């Protein structure tokens, strides 16, 4: 399932990634990377010893990404975002620092959105965040069940304009 047929704008990318503490980011995960619009900007900011794990259910995207990104920090996984805890562990890590998603939460099959939100909260370390960009605010509803602190924004310079959310995992979450 694709959230948009047009890649995110450079304005959306810059705004979404702005709150990330790149010096403390060891593991960055992206759900539904598609053709990799966010991948290079993340790799450009990621530490030399960091890891970028992208997860997609479409094997064609995964094949494309594996051929396109030759960075040793990059790992493309054919799978479900709901399995992020197991995927991160399979890559030798016990948590992710940040998880980015452009998945279309409003059109996911019943039960999938809540499962993804729960697994995401579980995998993110305290102080990390779930970064979500959407055309509707529905994703915030899924996030709010697990993340008490959610910052929001809006990016007009995107086709279509999109809502931005940063769900922060506090130490007592």
Automatic annotation (TrEMBL):
What SUPFAM superfamilies does its record include?
S-adenosyl-L-methionine-dependent methyltransferases
Q: Which InterPro entries match?
A: Methyltransf_25, SAM-dependent_MTases_sf
Per its UniProt record, what Pfam families does this chain match? Methyltransf_25
The Methyltransferase domain, residue ranges: 29-128
Q: What is this protein called?
A: Methyltransferase domain-containing protein
